[in-house]
Protein backbone atom coordinates (compact mmCIF):
# COMPACT_ATOMS: atom_id res chain seq x y z
CA UNK A 1 0.00 0.00 0.00
CA UNK A 2 2.79 2.39 0.97
CA UNK A 3 4.52 1.48 -2.25
CA UNK A 4 1.39 2.25 -4.20
CA UNK A 5 1.38 5.80 -2.88
CA UNK A 6 4.99 6.50 -3.82
CA UNK A 7 5.32 9.78 -5.66
CA UNK A 8 6.61 8.24 -8.86
CA UNK A 9 3.74 5.77 -9.06
CA UNK A 10 1.13 8.40 -8.33
CA UNK A 11 2.50 10.59 -11.11
CA UNK A 12 2.60 7.66 -13.55
CA UNK A 13 -1.01 6.76 -12.76
CA UNK A 14 -2.15 10.37 -13.15
CA UNK A 15 -0.42 10.75 -16.52
CA UNK A 16 -1.87 7.46 -17.68
CA UNK A 17 -5.31 8.58 -16.54
CA UNK A 18 -4.92 11.88 -18.39
CA UNK A 19 -3.95 9.99 -21.55
CA UNK A 20 -6.87 7.56 -21.48
CA UNK A 21 -9.37 10.11 -20.18
CA UNK A 22 -10.92 10.91 -23.62
CA UNK A 23 -11.55 7.19 -24.22
CA UNK A 24 -13.20 6.78 -20.84
CA UNK A 25 -15.68 9.63 -21.16
CA UNK A 26 -16.27 10.03 -24.87
CA UNK A 27 -18.08 13.13 -23.77
CA UNK A 28 -16.92 16.15 -25.75
CA UNK A 29 -18.14 18.57 -23.09
CA UNK A 30 -16.06 16.95 -20.36
CA UNK A 31 -13.04 16.87 -22.65
CA UNK A 32 -13.56 20.55 -23.34
CA UNK A 33 -13.66 21.37 -19.60
CA UNK A 34 -10.58 19.27 -18.95
CA UNK A 35 -8.64 20.94 -21.78
CA UNK A 36 -9.51 24.37 -20.38
CA UNK A 37 -8.42 23.25 -16.92
CA UNK A 38 -5.08 22.11 -18.37
CA UNK A 39 -4.59 25.52 -19.97
CA UNK A 40 -5.26 27.22 -16.64
CA UNK A 41 -2.84 24.87 -14.92
CA UNK A 42 -0.04 25.96 -17.26
CA UNK A 43 -0.70 29.59 -16.34
CA UNK A 44 -0.91 28.71 -12.63
CA UNK A 45 2.50 27.01 -12.81
CA UNK A 46 3.94 30.26 -14.12
CA UNK A 47 2.35 32.17 -11.25
CA UNK A 48 3.58 29.55 -8.79
CA UNK A 49 7.24 30.00 -9.77
CA UNK A 50 7.03 33.71 -9.13
CA UNK A 51 4.54 34.01 -6.26
CA UNK A 52 5.07 30.61 -4.64
CA UNK A 53 8.78 29.99 -4.93
CA UNK A 54 10.23 33.49 -5.21
CA UNK A 55 7.68 35.25 -3.01
CA UNK A 56 6.67 37.92 -5.53
CA UNK A 57 2.91 38.03 -5.92
CA UNK A 58 2.25 39.27 -9.44
CA UNK A 59 -1.31 40.37 -10.13
CA UNK A 60 -0.58 41.08 -13.80
CA UNK A 61 -0.69 37.41 -14.71
CA UNK A 62 -3.95 37.54 -16.62
CA UNK A 63 -2.53 40.48 -18.52
CA UNK A 64 0.33 38.34 -19.82
CA UNK A 65 -2.10 35.54 -20.50
CA UNK A 66 -4.05 37.98 -22.67
CA UNK A 67 -0.89 39.24 -24.37
CA UNK A 68 -0.06 35.67 -25.37
CA UNK A 69 -3.60 35.06 -26.61
CA UNK A 70 -3.88 38.35 -28.53
CA UNK A 71 -0.40 38.02 -30.05
CA UNK A 72 -1.31 34.64 -31.47
CA UNK A 73 -4.74 35.80 -32.59
CA UNK A 74 -3.45 38.94 -34.32
CA UNK A 75 -0.52 37.19 -35.98
CA UNK A 76 -2.73 34.43 -37.37
CA UNK A 77 -5.83 36.41 -38.33
CA UNK A 78 -4.51 39.85 -39.31
CA UNK A 79 -0.98 38.94 -40.40
CA UNK A 80 -2.04 35.58 -41.84
CA UNK A 81 1.09 34.01 -40.44
CA UNK A 82 1.75 30.30 -40.29
CA UNK A 83 0.25 28.99 -37.04
CA UNK A 84 3.35 27.57 -35.41
CA UNK A 85 5.48 30.55 -36.37
CA UNK A 86 2.85 32.82 -34.81
CA UNK A 87 2.79 30.54 -31.77
CA UNK A 88 6.53 30.89 -31.19
CA UNK A 89 6.39 34.63 -31.86
CA UNK A 90 3.52 35.02 -29.38
CA UNK A 91 5.67 33.42 -26.70
CA UNK A 92 8.60 35.67 -27.57
CA UNK A 93 6.42 38.80 -27.53
CA UNK A 94 4.98 37.89 -24.12
CA UNK A 95 8.43 37.17 -22.68
CA UNK A 96 9.96 40.37 -24.04
CA UNK A 97 7.09 42.45 -22.63
CA UNK A 98 7.54 40.49 -19.40
CA UNK A 99 11.20 41.44 -19.39
CA UNK A 100 10.46 45.13 -19.86
CA UNK A 101 7.68 45.21 -17.28
CA UNK A 102 9.75 43.08 -14.89
CA UNK A 103 12.66 45.52 -15.13
CA UNK A 104 10.45 48.26 -13.73
CA UNK A 105 8.07 46.41 -11.43
CA UNK A 106 10.79 44.40 -9.68
CA UNK A 107 12.13 47.62 -8.23
CA UNK A 108 9.22 47.34 -5.81
CA UNK A 109 8.76 44.70 -3.15
CA UNK A 110 6.07 42.82 -1.27
CA UNK A 111 2.71 44.65 -1.14
CA UNK A 112 3.98 47.39 -3.39
CA UNK A 113 4.90 44.83 -6.01
CA UNK A 114 1.42 43.30 -5.78
CA UNK A 115 -0.24 46.71 -6.11
CA UNK A 116 2.08 47.78 -8.91
CA UNK A 117 1.45 44.62 -10.93
CA UNK A 118 -2.28 44.93 -10.24
CA UNK A 119 -2.11 48.30 -12.01
CA UNK A 120 0.03 46.87 -14.82
CA UNK A 121 -2.51 44.11 -15.33
CA UNK A 122 -5.33 46.61 -15.45
CA UNK A 123 -3.47 48.80 -17.92
CA UNK A 124 -2.91 45.80 -20.21
CA UNK A 125 -6.64 45.12 -20.02
CA UNK A 126 -7.45 48.74 -20.82
CA UNK A 127 -5.09 48.83 -23.78
CA UNK A 128 -6.70 45.71 -25.22
CA UNK A 129 -10.18 47.02 -24.51
CA UNK A 130 -9.66 50.50 -25.97
CA UNK A 131 -7.29 49.87 -28.89
CA UNK A 132 -10.18 49.20 -31.19
CA UNK A 133 -8.32 49.27 -34.50
CA UNK A 134 -5.85 46.59 -33.45
CA UNK A 135 -7.64 44.35 -30.98
CA UNK A 136 -11.25 44.83 -32.01
CA UNK A 137 -12.03 46.34 -28.60
CA UNK A 138 -14.94 44.84 -26.73
CA UNK A 139 -15.99 42.86 -29.79
CA UNK A 140 -12.83 40.82 -29.55
CA UNK A 141 -11.25 38.72 -32.25
CA UNK A 142 -12.94 35.85 -34.01
CA UNK A 143 -11.86 33.25 -36.51
CA UNK A 144 -8.61 32.30 -34.80
CA UNK A 145 -7.41 29.14 -36.53
CA UNK A 146 -6.96 25.95 -34.57
CA UNK A 147 -3.38 24.76 -34.25
CA UNK A 148 -1.76 24.01 -37.61
CA UNK A 149 -1.01 20.48 -38.69
CA UNK A 150 2.22 18.91 -37.59
CA UNK A 151 2.94 16.47 -40.41
CA UNK A 152 -0.08 14.21 -40.66
CA UNK A 153 -1.47 15.21 -37.25
CA UNK A 154 -4.43 17.60 -37.34
CA UNK A 155 -5.81 19.54 -34.43
CA UNK A 156 -9.40 20.25 -35.37
CA UNK A 157 -11.21 17.88 -33.00
CA UNK A 158 -11.64 18.36 -29.25
CA UNK A 159 -9.71 15.17 -28.57
CA UNK A 160 -6.71 16.18 -30.65
CA UNK A 161 -6.67 19.58 -28.97
CA UNK A 162 -6.89 17.84 -25.63
CA UNK A 163 -3.73 15.90 -26.39
CA UNK A 164 -1.93 18.97 -27.71
CA UNK A 165 -2.68 20.89 -24.51
CA UNK A 166 -1.81 17.85 -22.41
CA UNK A 167 1.55 17.70 -24.17
CA UNK A 168 2.28 21.35 -23.32
CA UNK A 169 1.07 20.78 -19.76
CA UNK A 170 3.47 17.88 -19.27
CA UNK A 171 6.22 19.98 -20.83
CA UNK A 172 5.42 22.79 -18.37
CA UNK A 173 5.42 20.47 -15.36
CA UNK A 174 8.71 18.95 -16.44
CA UNK A 175 10.37 22.33 -16.89
CA UNK A 176 9.04 23.65 -13.56
CA UNK A 177 10.10 20.43 -11.83
CA UNK A 178 13.60 20.77 -13.24
CA UNK A 179 13.81 24.42 -12.20
CA UNK A 180 12.55 23.82 -8.68
CA UNK A 181 14.97 20.96 -8.09
CA UNK A 182 17.97 22.81 -9.44
CA UNK A 183 20.21 25.44 -7.91
CA UNK A 184 17.99 28.08 -9.53
CA UNK A 185 15.01 26.73 -7.59
CA UNK A 186 16.91 26.92 -4.33
CA UNK A 187 18.05 30.39 -5.30
CA UNK A 188 14.44 31.51 -5.73
CA UNK A 189 13.50 29.98 -2.38
CA UNK A 190 16.45 31.77 -0.82
CA UNK A 191 15.17 35.06 -2.23
CA UNK A 192 11.71 34.32 -0.81
CA UNK A 193 13.31 33.57 2.55
CA UNK A 194 15.20 36.84 2.77
CA UNK A 195 16.59 38.97 0.01
CA UNK A 196 19.32 40.44 2.19
CA UNK A 197 20.42 36.99 3.24
CA UNK A 198 20.41 35.81 -0.36
CA UNK A 199 22.61 38.72 -1.30
CA UNK A 200 25.06 38.07 1.49
CA UNK A 201 25.75 34.62 0.09
CA UNK A 202 26.44 36.14 -3.29
CA UNK A 203 23.14 35.77 -5.14
CA UNK A 204 22.45 38.49 -7.68
CA UNK A 205 18.86 38.97 -6.61
CA UNK A 206 17.95 41.49 -9.29
CA UNK A 207 18.94 39.19 -12.12
CA UNK A 208 17.39 36.08 -10.61
CA UNK A 209 14.10 37.83 -9.95
CA UNK A 210 14.02 39.12 -13.51
CA UNK A 211 14.69 35.65 -14.90
CA UNK A 212 11.90 34.07 -12.88
CA UNK A 213 9.54 36.91 -13.80
CA UNK A 214 10.19 36.28 -17.49
CA UNK A 215 9.75 32.51 -17.10
CA UNK A 216 6.48 33.18 -15.29
CA UNK A 217 5.19 35.43 -18.08
CA UNK A 218 6.36 32.89 -20.66
CA UNK A 219 4.04 30.27 -19.18
CA UNK A 220 1.21 32.79 -18.95
CA UNK A 221 1.76 33.54 -22.63
CA UNK A 222 1.91 29.85 -23.51
CA UNK A 223 -1.41 29.27 -21.76
CA UNK A 224 -2.88 32.32 -23.48
CA UNK A 225 -1.78 31.21 -26.94
CA UNK A 226 -3.22 27.74 -26.39
CA UNK A 227 -6.44 29.29 -25.09
CA UNK A 228 -6.84 31.50 -28.14
CA UNK A 229 -6.54 28.65 -30.62
CA UNK A 230 -8.64 26.32 -28.50
CA UNK A 231 -11.61 28.64 -27.93
CA UNK A 232 -10.98 30.39 -31.28
CA UNK A 233 -12.55 33.58 -30.00
CA UNK A 234 -11.08 36.02 -27.52
CA UNK A 235 -12.32 39.20 -25.89
CA UNK A 236 -10.61 41.68 -23.55
CA UNK A 237 -12.16 40.02 -20.50
CA UNK A 238 -9.49 37.28 -20.60
CA UNK A 239 -7.04 39.94 -19.42
CA UNK A 240 -9.29 41.17 -16.66
CA UNK A 241 -8.37 41.10 -12.96
CA UNK A 242 -10.93 38.37 -12.22
CA UNK A 243 -8.87 35.90 -14.27
CA UNK A 244 -5.79 36.76 -12.21
CA UNK A 245 -7.72 36.11 -9.03
CA UNK A 246 -9.13 32.87 -10.43
CA UNK A 247 -5.59 31.69 -11.12
CA UNK A 248 -4.48 32.83 -7.70
CA UNK A 249 -7.39 30.99 -6.06
CA UNK A 250 -6.48 27.78 -7.89
CA UNK A 251 -2.90 28.19 -6.68
CA UNK A 252 -3.80 28.94 -3.07
CA UNK A 253 -6.33 26.11 -2.78
CA UNK A 254 -3.95 23.63 -4.39
CA UNK A 255 -0.94 24.82 -2.46
CA UNK A 256 1.23 27.82 -3.17
CA UNK A 257 4.91 26.98 -3.44
CA UNK A 258 4.31 23.28 -4.02
CA UNK A 259 4.80 21.30 -7.21
CA UNK A 260 1.47 19.48 -7.23
CA UNK A 261 -0.56 22.46 -5.99
CA UNK A 262 -1.45 23.97 -9.38
CA UNK A 263 -2.79 20.64 -10.72
CA UNK A 264 -4.79 19.81 -7.60
CA UNK A 265 -6.24 23.28 -7.05
CA UNK A 266 -7.17 23.97 -10.66
CA UNK A 267 -8.79 20.63 -11.43
CA UNK A 268 -10.65 20.60 -8.13
CA UNK A 269 -12.00 24.13 -8.45
CA UNK A 270 -12.84 23.90 -12.15
CA UNK A 271 -14.71 20.69 -11.47
CA UNK A 272 -16.51 21.94 -8.36
CA UNK A 273 -17.53 25.17 -10.05
CA UNK A 274 -18.91 23.15 -12.97
CA UNK A 275 -20.97 21.09 -10.53
CA UNK A 276 -22.27 24.23 -8.86
CA UNK A 277 -23.14 25.94 -12.14
CA UNK A 278 -26.86 25.88 -11.26
CA UNK A 279 -26.16 28.28 -8.37
CA UNK A 280 -24.82 30.90 -10.81
CA UNK A 281 -22.91 33.64 -9.02
CA UNK A 282 -24.15 32.43 -5.63
CA UNK A 283 -21.40 29.83 -5.96
CA UNK A 284 -19.11 32.47 -4.56
CA UNK A 285 -21.03 32.28 -1.28
CA UNK A 286 -19.71 28.76 -0.96
CA UNK A 287 -16.23 29.44 -2.34
CA UNK A 288 -15.58 32.52 -0.21
CA UNK A 289 -15.89 30.95 3.25
CA UNK A 290 -14.10 27.76 2.17
CA UNK A 291 -11.20 29.78 0.79
CA UNK A 292 -11.01 31.83 3.99
CA UNK A 293 -10.96 28.73 6.17
CA UNK A 294 -8.34 27.14 3.96
CA UNK A 295 -6.05 30.17 4.14
CA UNK A 296 -6.37 30.26 7.94
CA UNK A 297 -5.86 26.57 8.62
CA UNK A 298 -3.88 25.39 5.60
CA UNK A 299 -1.92 28.39 4.34
CA UNK A 300 -0.06 26.15 1.95
CA UNK A 301 -3.21 24.67 0.49
CA UNK A 302 -4.22 21.06 0.05
CA UNK A 303 -0.84 19.94 -1.18
CA UNK A 304 1.06 21.83 1.53
CA UNK A 305 -1.31 20.48 4.18
CA UNK A 306 -0.64 16.96 2.97
CA UNK A 307 3.13 17.49 3.02
CA UNK A 308 2.95 18.81 6.60
CA UNK A 309 0.74 15.91 7.63
CA UNK A 310 3.22 13.41 6.19
CA UNK A 311 6.17 15.16 7.84
CA UNK A 312 4.40 15.09 11.19
CA UNK A 313 3.58 11.41 10.85
CA UNK A 314 7.16 10.61 9.97
CA UNK A 315 8.37 12.58 12.96
CA UNK A 316 5.96 10.72 15.21
CA UNK A 317 7.19 7.42 13.87
CA UNK A 318 10.76 8.44 14.42
CA UNK A 319 10.07 9.56 17.99
CA UNK A 320 8.29 6.30 18.61
CA UNK A 321 11.21 4.25 17.35
CA UNK A 322 13.64 6.39 19.34
CA UNK A 323 11.49 5.82 22.39
CA UNK A 324 11.43 2.09 21.76
CA UNK A 325 15.17 2.08 21.35
CA UNK A 326 15.63 3.96 24.61
CA UNK A 327 13.30 1.60 26.40
CA UNK A 328 15.16 -1.35 25.00
CA UNK A 329 18.43 0.15 26.12
CA UNK A 330 17.05 0.84 29.59
CA UNK A 331 15.66 -2.65 29.95
CA UNK A 332 18.94 -4.09 28.68
CA UNK A 333 20.79 -2.03 31.26
CA UNK A 334 18.39 -3.18 33.93
CA UNK A 335 18.86 -6.83 33.08
CA UNK A 336 22.63 -6.44 33.01
CA UNK A 337 22.47 -4.60 36.33
CA UNK A 338 20.30 -7.36 37.72
CA UNK A 339 22.65 -10.04 36.47
CA UNK A 340 25.57 -8.15 37.97
CA UNK A 341 23.78 -8.13 41.29
CA UNK A 342 23.09 -11.81 41.07
CA UNK A 343 26.69 -12.51 40.10
CA UNK B 1 43.67 44.68 3.28
CA UNK B 2 40.30 46.19 4.22
CA UNK B 3 40.00 49.86 5.06
CA UNK B 4 36.88 51.64 6.16
CA UNK B 5 37.38 55.40 5.83
CA UNK B 6 35.13 57.89 7.62
CA UNK B 7 31.87 56.18 6.79
CA UNK B 8 28.53 57.44 8.05
CA UNK B 9 25.25 55.67 7.47
CA UNK B 10 21.72 56.99 7.85
CA UNK B 11 18.45 55.13 8.23
CA UNK B 12 16.00 57.77 7.10
CA UNK B 13 17.13 60.81 9.06
CA UNK B 14 18.58 58.75 11.90
CA UNK B 15 22.37 58.58 11.75
CA UNK B 16 23.26 55.01 12.74
CA UNK B 17 27.05 55.32 12.52
CA UNK B 18 29.17 58.43 12.20
CA UNK B 19 32.68 58.78 10.88
CA UNK B 20 33.82 55.22 11.42
CA UNK B 21 37.43 54.28 10.60
CA UNK B 22 38.53 50.67 10.68
CA UNK B 23 41.61 49.04 9.32
CA UNK B 24 41.98 45.30 8.97
CA UNK B 25 45.26 43.71 7.93
CA UNK B 26 45.60 40.32 6.38
CA UNK B 27 45.52 37.46 8.86
CA UNK B 28 44.16 39.50 11.76
CA UNK B 29 41.20 38.93 13.99
CA UNK B 30 39.61 42.32 14.57
CA UNK B 31 36.82 42.66 17.08
CA UNK B 32 34.11 45.31 17.24
CA UNK B 33 32.80 45.66 20.77
CA UNK B 34 29.70 47.45 21.87
CA UNK B 35 26.18 47.16 23.21
CA UNK B 36 23.08 46.56 21.14
CA UNK B 37 22.43 49.40 18.74
CA UNK B 38 25.95 50.78 19.02
CA UNK B 39 26.49 50.45 15.29
CA UNK B 40 28.42 47.20 14.92
CA UNK B 41 25.89 45.53 12.65
CA UNK B 42 25.44 48.68 10.58
CA UNK B 43 29.18 48.80 10.03
CA UNK B 44 29.11 45.17 8.92
CA UNK B 45 26.17 45.78 6.61
CA UNK B 46 28.00 48.69 5.06
CA UNK B 47 31.12 46.63 4.42
CA UNK B 48 29.02 43.79 2.97
CA UNK B 49 27.12 46.25 0.77
CA UNK B 50 23.63 45.92 2.23
CA UNK B 51 23.70 49.50 3.52
CA UNK B 52 25.22 52.32 1.55
CA UNK B 53 27.20 55.04 3.34
CA UNK B 54 26.34 58.66 2.60
CA UNK B 55 29.87 59.64 3.52
CA UNK B 56 33.22 57.91 3.36
CA UNK B 57 34.36 54.85 1.47
CA UNK B 58 35.35 51.23 1.89
CA UNK B 59 38.50 49.98 0.21
CA UNK B 60 39.31 46.31 -0.16
CA UNK B 61 42.63 45.21 -1.63
CA UNK B 62 43.11 48.65 -3.13
CA UNK B 63 39.67 48.74 -4.74
CA UNK B 64 36.66 50.79 -3.69
CA UNK B 65 33.77 48.48 -2.90
CA UNK B 66 31.19 50.69 -1.18
CA UNK B 67 29.36 51.30 -4.48
CA UNK B 68 29.19 47.58 -5.38
CA UNK B 69 26.10 45.46 -4.78
CA UNK B 70 26.17 42.97 -1.92
CA UNK B 71 26.48 39.93 -4.17
CA UNK B 72 29.46 41.46 -6.01
CA UNK B 73 31.22 42.03 -2.71
CA UNK B 74 30.84 38.33 -1.90
CA UNK B 75 32.63 37.62 -5.16
CA UNK B 76 35.41 40.00 -4.12
CA UNK B 77 35.94 37.79 -1.07
CA UNK B 78 34.15 39.41 1.86
CA UNK B 79 31.44 37.24 3.35
CA UNK B 80 29.13 38.12 6.19
CA UNK B 81 27.83 35.51 8.57
CA UNK B 82 24.68 37.26 9.70
CA UNK B 83 23.50 37.78 13.25
CA UNK B 84 20.68 35.64 14.59
CA UNK B 85 21.92 32.61 12.66
CA UNK B 86 19.87 33.37 9.62
CA UNK B 87 19.57 30.11 7.73
CA UNK B 88 17.18 28.73 5.15
CA UNK B 89 15.14 26.80 7.70
CA UNK B 90 13.29 24.51 5.29
CA UNK B 91 16.43 23.49 3.41
CA UNK B 92 18.62 20.71 4.71
CA UNK B 93 22.00 21.42 6.29
CA UNK B 94 23.63 20.10 3.15
CA UNK B 95 21.61 22.43 0.91
CA UNK B 96 22.33 25.38 3.19
CA UNK B 97 26.04 24.75 2.91
CA UNK B 98 25.77 24.29 -0.82
CA UNK B 99 23.98 27.62 -1.15
CA UNK B 100 26.94 29.20 0.65
CA UNK B 101 29.13 28.19 -2.27
CA UNK B 102 26.82 30.00 -4.70
CA UNK B 103 29.59 32.16 -6.13
CA UNK B 104 31.64 29.02 -6.86
CA UNK B 105 28.65 27.07 -8.18
CA UNK B 106 30.47 25.97 -11.33
CA UNK B 107 33.41 24.52 -9.45
CA UNK B 108 31.95 21.25 -8.14
CA UNK B 109 35.27 19.77 -7.03
CA UNK B 110 36.06 22.79 -4.92
CA UNK B 111 32.60 22.74 -3.33
CA UNK B 112 33.10 19.12 -2.30
CA UNK B 113 36.50 19.89 -0.86
CA UNK B 114 35.31 22.91 1.13
CA UNK B 115 32.31 20.96 2.38
CA UNK B 116 34.58 18.19 3.64
CA UNK B 117 36.58 20.84 5.41
CA UNK B 118 33.44 22.27 7.04
CA UNK B 119 32.46 18.78 8.20
CA UNK B 120 35.95 18.42 9.63
CA UNK B 121 35.50 21.62 11.66
CA UNK B 122 31.97 20.67 12.72
CA UNK B 123 31.64 16.86 12.67
CA UNK B 124 28.10 17.05 14.04
CA UNK B 125 26.93 18.71 10.82
CA UNK B 126 27.90 15.70 8.77
CA UNK B 127 25.60 13.54 10.89
CA UNK B 128 22.79 16.05 10.53
CA UNK B 129 23.36 17.00 6.92
CA UNK B 130 19.97 15.75 5.71
CA UNK B 131 17.98 17.37 8.52
CA UNK B 132 16.22 20.67 7.87
CA UNK B 133 18.38 23.48 9.23
CA UNK B 134 15.44 24.85 11.23
CA UNK B 135 15.32 21.68 13.34
CA UNK B 136 18.84 22.06 14.75
CA UNK B 137 19.79 23.46 18.14
CA UNK B 138 21.04 27.04 18.48
CA UNK B 139 24.68 26.04 18.59
CA UNK B 140 24.36 23.77 15.59
CA UNK B 141 22.57 26.47 13.62
CA UNK B 142 25.45 28.80 14.37
CA UNK B 143 27.80 26.12 13.05
CA UNK B 144 25.79 25.90 9.83
CA UNK B 145 25.90 29.68 9.52
CA UNK B 146 29.70 29.76 9.90
CA UNK B 147 30.05 26.72 7.65
CA UNK B 148 27.92 28.35 5.00
CA UNK B 149 30.05 31.49 5.11
CA UNK B 150 33.18 29.33 4.77
CA UNK B 151 31.75 27.64 1.68
CA UNK B 152 32.26 30.89 -0.20
CA UNK B 153 36.01 30.65 0.53
CA UNK B 154 36.17 34.20 1.86
CA UNK B 155 39.32 36.23 2.25
CA UNK B 156 37.58 38.20 4.98
CA UNK B 157 34.82 36.67 7.07
CA UNK B 158 32.59 38.89 9.16
CA UNK B 159 30.89 37.23 12.12
CA UNK B 160 28.08 39.13 13.78
CA UNK B 161 27.70 38.04 17.40
CA UNK B 162 28.41 34.33 16.97
CA UNK B 163 28.12 33.77 20.72
CA UNK B 164 24.70 35.30 21.27
CA UNK B 165 22.30 32.97 23.04
CA UNK B 166 24.70 30.04 23.26
CA UNK B 167 25.74 28.03 26.29
CA UNK B 168 29.19 29.04 27.68
CA UNK B 169 30.78 25.75 26.70
CA UNK B 170 29.54 26.09 23.11
CA UNK B 171 30.76 29.70 23.02
CA UNK B 172 34.22 28.50 23.91
CA UNK B 173 34.14 25.88 21.15
CA UNK B 174 32.91 28.48 18.71
CA UNK B 175 35.79 30.80 19.46
CA UNK B 176 38.24 27.95 19.11
CA UNK B 177 36.87 27.22 15.67
CA UNK B 178 37.03 30.89 14.71
CA UNK B 179 40.66 30.94 15.75
CA UNK B 180 41.29 27.83 13.70
CA UNK B 181 39.64 29.32 10.62
CA UNK B 182 41.82 32.39 11.09
CA UNK B 183 44.99 30.29 11.35
CA UNK B 184 44.05 28.64 8.06
CA UNK B 185 44.35 32.02 6.40
CA UNK B 186 40.97 33.77 6.64
CA UNK B 187 40.98 37.26 8.05
CA UNK B 188 38.25 37.65 10.64
CA UNK B 189 36.13 40.61 11.58
CA UNK B 190 34.10 39.87 14.67
CA UNK B 191 31.30 41.82 16.34
CA UNK B 192 30.78 40.83 19.94
CA UNK B 193 29.29 41.84 23.25
CA UNK B 194 31.24 39.10 24.96
CA UNK B 195 34.43 41.16 25.23
CA UNK B 196 36.22 38.73 27.47
CA UNK B 197 36.10 35.84 25.04
CA UNK B 198 36.55 37.98 21.95
CA UNK B 199 39.61 39.91 23.13
CA UNK B 200 41.36 36.67 24.01
CA UNK B 201 41.55 35.65 20.37
CA UNK B 202 41.63 39.10 18.72
CA UNK B 203 44.64 41.05 17.57
CA UNK B 204 42.94 44.40 17.95
CA UNK B 205 39.58 45.92 18.68
CA UNK B 206 37.28 48.90 18.30
CA UNK B 207 34.76 49.89 20.93
CA UNK B 208 31.46 51.29 19.62
CA UNK B 209 29.10 53.57 21.48
CA UNK B 210 26.08 55.31 19.98
CA UNK B 211 27.36 54.96 16.44
CA UNK B 212 30.88 56.19 17.17
CA UNK B 213 34.16 54.44 17.81
CA UNK B 214 35.16 55.60 21.28
CA UNK B 215 38.23 53.50 21.95
CA UNK B 216 40.51 51.52 19.70
CA UNK B 217 43.68 49.58 20.29
CA UNK B 218 45.37 46.20 20.45
CA UNK B 219 43.57 43.61 22.49
CA UNK B 220 46.05 43.99 25.38
CA UNK B 221 45.41 47.71 25.45
CA UNK B 222 41.67 47.22 25.47
CA UNK B 223 41.88 44.46 28.01
CA UNK B 224 43.67 46.74 30.44
CA UNK B 225 41.68 49.86 29.56
CA UNK B 226 39.63 50.81 32.62
CA UNK B 227 36.51 52.02 30.88
CA UNK B 228 36.42 48.95 28.63
CA UNK B 229 36.91 46.67 31.60
CA UNK B 230 34.13 48.37 33.46
CA UNK B 231 31.67 48.35 30.58
CA UNK B 232 32.30 45.02 28.90
CA UNK B 233 34.35 42.74 31.07
CA UNK B 234 32.85 43.54 34.41
CA UNK B 235 35.94 43.33 36.63
TrEMBL record, chain A:
Keyword field: Cell membrane, Membrane, Transmembrane, Transmembrane helix
Sequence ranges of Polar residues compositional bias: 329-343
Transmembrane segments: 7-24, 30-50, 57-77, 83-104, 111-128, 162-180, 210-235, 247-272, 284-302
UniProt topology in membrane: Multi-pass membrane protein
Compositional bias (Low complexity): 319-328
Localization: Cell membrane
Top-level taxon of the source organism: Bacteria
Region of interest (Disordered), ranges: 318-343
The keyword Cell membrane appears for this protein: yes
UniProt name for this protein: Branched-chain amino acid ABC transporter permease
Keyword Cell membrane: yes
Annotated source species: Mesobacillus maritimus
Automatic annotation (TrEMBL), chain B:
Domain ABC transporter: 2-235
Gene3D superfamilies attached to this UniProt entry: P-loop containing nucleotide triphosphate hydrolases (3.40.50.300)
Family annotation (InterPro entries): AAA+_ATPase, ABC_transporter-like_ATP-bd, ABC_transporter-like_CS, BCAA_Transport_ATP-bd_LivF, P-loop_NTPase
Keyword Nucleotide-binding: yes
Keywords from the named record: Amino-acid transport, ATP-binding, Nucleotide-binding, Transport
Top-level taxon in the UniProt lineage: Bacteria
Family assignment from sequence similarity: Belongs to the ABC transporter superfamily.
Designated name of the protein: ABC transporter ATP-binding protein
Species in which this protein is naturally found: Mesobacillus maritimus
Amino acid sequence: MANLLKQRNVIAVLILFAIVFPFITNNNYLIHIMTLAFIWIIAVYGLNLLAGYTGYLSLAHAGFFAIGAYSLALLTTKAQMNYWLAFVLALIITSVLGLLIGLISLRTKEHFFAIYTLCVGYIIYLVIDKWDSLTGGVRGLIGIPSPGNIGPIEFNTPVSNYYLVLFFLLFTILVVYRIVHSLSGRTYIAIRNSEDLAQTIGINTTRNKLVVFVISTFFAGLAGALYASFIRFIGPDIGYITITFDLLTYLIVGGIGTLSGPVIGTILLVWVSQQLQFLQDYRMMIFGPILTLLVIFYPRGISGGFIDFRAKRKEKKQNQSNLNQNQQMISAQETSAASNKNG
Amino acid sequence: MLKVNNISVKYGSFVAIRDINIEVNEGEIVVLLGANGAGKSTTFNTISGLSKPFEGDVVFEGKRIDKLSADRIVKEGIVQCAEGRKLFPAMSVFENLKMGAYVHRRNKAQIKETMDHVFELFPILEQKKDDPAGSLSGGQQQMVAIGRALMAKPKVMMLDEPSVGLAPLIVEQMFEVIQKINKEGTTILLAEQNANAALKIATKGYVFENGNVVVEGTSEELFTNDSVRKAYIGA
